Amino acid sequence: MLQTSNDRRWGHLLAERWSHEPGDLPPQLPRDTEIAILLRGSSVVDREGAGMRQRTFGRRGTVWLCPAGIREDFIRVEDQMQECLHLFLPGKPFDDTMLRDLDIDPSGMSIRYESIDRDMFIEHVADRILAELAQETSTGRLLIESLGRALSAHLVHSYAASSVRLKQSYAVQKPLDARRLSRVTEFIDASVEREFTVKDLASVACMSPAHFSRSFKAATGTAPHEYVSRQRLDLAKRLLSTSDRPLVDIAFAAGFSSQANFNRAFRKAVGTTPSHYRARKGQD
């Protein structure tokens, strides 16, 4: 394994980067829905699951789906796959997306066991996840929650094993009304130092998470995680300027898992390190 998101405390998906050598992989019975995306390398991959045998020429962008509970009895990689991203969607958030956002009974729906030559939406989500893995942001968990929900909905729309009746698409999304927007922004201001989810924000607005995210962006011009990111950056600046709290405490308050990740993100956003920013403000 090259990298894992285990230390990031993401609740809506697990991400792992792997390098696969030629040969047979052990049989597996995934508890979660798995999406594998080939990032570097090419190889013929033979696999067997759900009573089907598949032979795929994998190249950059090839996707393999394996629904939760489907045993893969045989997987063979003919040539080295230098880098492959594996995404695992846990059952509860996946089911919650179907029930609350799509109005679908999860017990009557399943995803196909399938290999896909290319899926631009999955590639886009993978790129966002890889960027967050490479450099943690203050609202990474909010971003990953939104990406996990969007990915779950995409799988249902595009790769359901049987036809499902979906909610009417929100082509034109009504902005969040002023009263609900005020409640949400007040909640964010009061809770900016603690961990919360898009689902928590949606509950404040009395909406489903997907509907809330679209309405919030229509009202503010930014996604929820982008809005919270700005609030947390302002918090970090304020604490650096007006308090003597240790940098590691400020990093955790701003939503980072480590001081090192906080230092990198702060320097990228502000152009200087937290230490230099504090010293400069102390001289003003």
UniProtKB/TrEMBL annotation:
Ranges in a coiled coil: none
Domain (HTH araC/xylS-type) ranges: 182-280
InterPro entries recorded: AraC_XylS_family_regulators (IPR050204), Homeodomain-like_sf (IPR009057), HTH_AraC (IPR018060), HTH_AraC-typ_CS (IPR018062), Tscrpt_reg_AraC-type_HTH (IPR020449)
PROSITE patterns, A to Z: HTH_ARAC_FAMILY_1, HTH_ARAC_FAMILY_2
Keyword Transcription belongs to the record: yes
Record field: transmembrane: none
Keyword Transcription regulation: yes
GO molecular function annotation: DNA-binding transcription factor activity; sequence-specific DNA binding
Gene3D superfamilies given in the database record: Homeodomain-like
Alphabetical UniProt keywords: DNA-binding, Transcription, Transcription regulation
Pfam families cross-referenced by the UniProt entry: HTH_18
Protein name, per record: AraC family transcriptional regulator
Organism, scientific name: Bradyrhizobium ottawaense
